[in-house]
Amino acid sequence: MNHLLGHRYYAPHLTLALYTSTDALATPETRTHLIDLLQALAAAEVRNPVCLVTKFPFTDDVLAAVGRARAQGLTVIAYVSYSGLRPDHEPGIDHTALLETFHRLHTEAIPTVHYLRPALPANSDPDLLSRLLDHTSPYTRCTVVVGTKVKPSARGQITRLWPALADPHLSPETADSVWPRSTWAWLSNLPQRFAEHPVFQTNSCALAYILGRPEHAGVLHTPTCVSNQCPAPQRQRCQFQGAAGPPLTHHVIRAHLDRLGHPDTAFTYRHRTRTVILASPAPLTDRHNLAQVLGVTVRAPDAPCERLWPGRLSGAQPLVVDPA
User: Fold this and answer.
1) pTM given for the model
2) pLDDT tens digit string along 34-65?
3) Of 17, 13, 9, 4, the residue nearest 51 (C-alpha)
4) How far is Cα 212 from Cα 39, in angstroms, rounded to an integer?
């Protein structure tokens, strides 16, 4: 716990995404670890919201542990990945059990996000996508639809699933995300029956909506903001933050850059757009943390040998791909 609270990326208001490199609900061993961690967070009176992302059903013991942690004041948000992909794309995923999980989480009043990802040709049929929302929207607070993220080292792997990305004229590695044209069109013209169900393209927007907060990652007024099916009260919340957010001083920005290990990095700050422009490269993880903690947009040269995809926070845009 000391390692978490003393980490340079920690801030009391940030949402903690647990087990982002694995799935804590996949095995008995990982579920036991999750149960112990939830208890430790609650006992230490950590009040950061925590987010559990999974493609597996919540078992009885995990649900009980979530209930105990919530009773002690810990906010827990469930992200359940339900994408409609075939077993050859997602081996071992039990779609029937996932649908039952949506019901159970709703019954327990655990705020739940339907995580529809990744967007691939195999799940790009508009009728399929609408059926997925038919199944999940009655039991979830919102849906997040995410395009495919292509790391620099993953081009060969993704082209086996999506041959069109082998086109040498495309650069999926530099895109924020990659989308089949039919999925992108469906998002732009959702069926009317989902008009009251928020659908976002960014997790920061979904979390802000669930937590009743303004979005702090610079999505406001961007093309993503415009395309999100975002409720009017949430848009007003973000508008107010953008127009009357807390003042940010040079000293505060300097102090956080020092905390992140960049004491010599020069920067400029544009007050009107709440944009911090770094004069030298910084890792994407540091730039994302600066943006989230201070509620700013961050621009900087890419760090050498960066292994993560750039994302919208660095100015990257979605890549929409026509059928092959």
Assistant:
1) 0.91
2) 999 999 999 999 999 999 999 999 999 999 99
3) 17
4) 25
